[in-house]
Design brief:
This protein is 74% helix and 4% strand. By secondary structure, it is mainly alpha-helical. A hairpin with a 2-residue loop joins strand 2 and strand 3 (274-276).
């Protein structure tokens, strides 16, 4: 009986791992509604700050400086507050669970992808564009069915990475505070995207900071996506095109998935009514609702594998310590 109870007791003692699984289960059944999420408030504060300090008449250097200071003031201030709060909470693992639950955001995205898929199957382009506009950080009103499916695939890929994988990675490194602060950094990069003209200089600091945070986990997830069937073509695509599409790990993700499904991703996009040139990446097959469903299924499997691998590593390192 003692031998059987030892692993169970060890699991109960590993409160960080239990908090992670608790937050994942909680998010799966009860994702935080956007209208009460502190992340939504964070975005509104970021928008208000940019309205105050980001001016078109300022020089590019001044805009970059303002963007860097805005990032530092917002992110570092909350980081200090969370670290201080962590010292006075009575139940540390519950604090981590709550922060991780607030940081996760992938479940609503998978449901949105399924809704877009069904709208495309019904040939309801207006509904599909409206649904996609809820999460896509660019214009959708002129997208064709192929463009909608392609944009949905790209959004799903990046959403799985930034809404789950990178969040869990930083949770493993710095606990609930690390996971929550990563999500806040990702939101700043979305609110101040350099691809939009008004943030072309102001948003560089937030975008660069997110690229730094994404560098390791997004590339590891891309390699996990590439593993298995068509591994060599996926690895070749990562090596040849991963860096050309984006400075962060999104290029690796699109290259790996595009090569696996032989799916054409990337290409031009419209920001602020202006066409932005982006290189094509992946395969040559045009995106369709079938590809969106297949990608959603494959990403769910890869995400589960990531969770299991991370859980094992956290268990193993906890045992060593």
């Amino acid at each position: 009986m003692t031998e059987l109870s030892t692993p169970f007791e060890a699991l109960l003692n590993h409160t960080t791992l239990l908090a992670m699984w608790g937050a994942l289960i909680l998010h799966w059944f009860f994702p935080v509604p956007a209208y009460i999420s502190p992340v939504t408030i964070w975005r509104r504060v970021a928008e208000a700050i940019s309205d105050k300090v980001n001016h078109d008449e300022d020089s590019p250097e001044q805009q970059r400086l303002s963007g860097g200071l805005a990032l530092a003031v917002m992110w570092l201030t909350l980081a200090v507050l969370l670290v201080a709060l962590r010292q006075i909470v009575w139940i540390g693992w519950l604090f981590d669970l709550l922060l991780l639950w607030l940081a996760l955001s992938w479940k609503p995205l998978t449901e949105l992808a399924m809704q877009v898929e069904q709208a495309l199957i019904r040939d309801d382009k207006p509904a599909a564009r409206t649904l996609l506009s809820q999460t896509l950080n660019r214009q959708t009103h002129s997208l064709s069915p192929v463009g909608i499916a392609k944009a949905s695939c790209e959004t799903l890929l990046v959403g799985y990475a930034r809404g789950l994988v990178c969040v869990l990675f930083w949770y493993a490194v710095f606990g609930g505070i690390g996971a929550f602060l990563y999500t806040l950094a990702a939101q700043l990069a979305r609110v101040w995207p350099p691809r939009r003209q008004e943030f072309s200089q102001f948003g560089l600091a937030a975008s660069g900071f997110l690229a730094l945070l994404d560098w390791i986990p997004s590339r590891l997830f891309a390699l996990l996506i590439a593993a298995g069937h068509r591994f060599e073509p996926a690895l070749t695509a990562i090596r040849e095109h991963g860096q050309s599409w984006s400075v962060n790990g999104a290029g690796w993700l699109l290259a790996a998935s595009g090569a696996k499904l032989q799916l054409s991703l990337g290409g031009p996009a419209i920001y602020d009514s202006e066409k932005c040139t982006r290189p094509s990446i992946g395969g040559s097959v045009a995106a369709s609702p079938m590809h969106l469903a297949l990608l959603n299924q494959q990403l769910r499997q890869k995400a589960l594998l990531w969770i299991l691998i991370q859980s094992f590593l956290m268990w193993f390192t906890h045992g060593l310590l």
